Amino acid sequence: MGKYKEQIFNSVLLIIGLVLFILSLYHxxxxxxxxxxxxxxxxxxxxxxxxxxxxxxxxxxxPAVGMAVFIIYGFLPAAMLxxxxxxxxxxxxxxxxKNGFLNGAMFSTTYIIAGWVFLFIGGKTGIVELYQxxxxxVYVIVSFLVNxxxxxxxxxxxxxxxxxxxxxxxxxxxxxxxxxxxxxxxLVSYIYFKYNxxxxxxxxxxxxxxxxxxxxxxxxxxxxxxxxxxxxxVKIINSKLELDKVFDAIIDVxxxxxxxxxxxxxxxxxxxxxxxxxxxxxxxxxxxxxQNYFKDEGIIGKCINTNKTIxxxxxxxxxxxxxxxxxxxxxxxxxxxxxxxxxxxxxxxILQVEVGAFDEDASKIVEIIADQSxxxxxxxxxxxxxSKSSIxxxxxxxYNRRYFNDALLKNILKSNEDNVPVSLIMxxxxxxxxxxxxxxxxxxxxxxxxVAKRIKNNVRDNxxxxxxxxxxxxxxxxKLVAEQAYMIAERIRNEISLSPISTSKGDIYxxxxxxxxxxxxxxxxxxxxxxxxxxxxxxxxxSKGRNKIAIYEV
Length: 554
Known about the structure:
With 554 residues, the protein is an alpha+beta fold.
């Protein structure tokens, strides 16, 4: 669907650009000689070559030449100059043929629409007068708005991630270039009318120096931004303790310094399998990121095994990259290992839809971020392990009573907010004291572990299994009424009672009794929900022969 939208958008843009250009040629004359056009085109190409590539947008001072040509010769020669300049830069200098035609169509649409609006409101070219400034400002504003409107949607349909900070800064920088260009264009146009074409060309020469200085300033800003990104990663190390938030922060930091269309964080688990921690891309193609990579598998396995950064400028031509699911949607990639104390703990995958989007400079900054990221990930893992140990029963690996109390209260609050029920099952092993007395407490522990395992295997992922105390277990079941919870409780009872438990002293049969209640139908608070489930357990189950499940009746 994403590719289809892109093709439709590109086709419409090309048709509109071509139709507008042909109509303009038919209705308006080209009032510039070929020699003059070529000389001015050379200036525009030089300025384009000194432009700043910012994410997926190139900013240059070449429109200053185009604006001067507009004031002197009219909107059609100006549009022709900008179309030729951007197509030469994109197709010849950057080797992007398709983008060259699209940029040409975008500039045709932008400058011809702005020119028509200029003429419609009464603007005139071929003169430089104060009263004309308002009309020229309208031309500048319209061209700016149309150009950014087309560019925004072009990037969007291509599936590129439009990070707000990136987009806002690029628009501000382009607006700044327009502010600089307007007085310059008026000045050099005045020189043309006051003197001659040669003086006009000579007056354009300082633009090359301005563009060079502008580029140096942007490089300094870029370097400073990358230093800030590293600094931000250091802050994350000290502040983010939840793994999901660390993943989000890593991708956010990378997106500030490198133009990306997709990104993923993979973490190596205890078995050496690289597991997807976080993936970001256009919502239509997020599923292209593989969930797991085994050792030596794919580009992620290669990065982990070689412990080296892999930079790919053209995915379609790479023997390993082009076998990945995502190769259909992206054309450039970087895979960077994340290391901690000499060990590989995972890797970062950065992707772009453009061919040749990444260079060694981008690779190095991602490596720096990866080094800092590994520390943040290790800290988050340690925090998780410590926090989990404080809420987990060490014997059964289920949640403990402390966590159960908090979870039940949160689920009841959530139930009130969403107007949905929550159910509670309380289980108690039948005659468990007899097992401890007959076989010993170590065998009793084996039985408890297996019972906990069977309970967890028969509930949903979002259900909360806890050891309430001794041989008692609880299950919190969000969004289920008591009758639905009863069915799950029955399944658990059958699973435990029908199959023996293998222990060091042989197979042992055991049964379990349960009580079920729900909120808010059968209880109006957390305390009453526990009390009513417990009453159902003993009054409805234990008192009637054990190995039963009972629902609390109001």
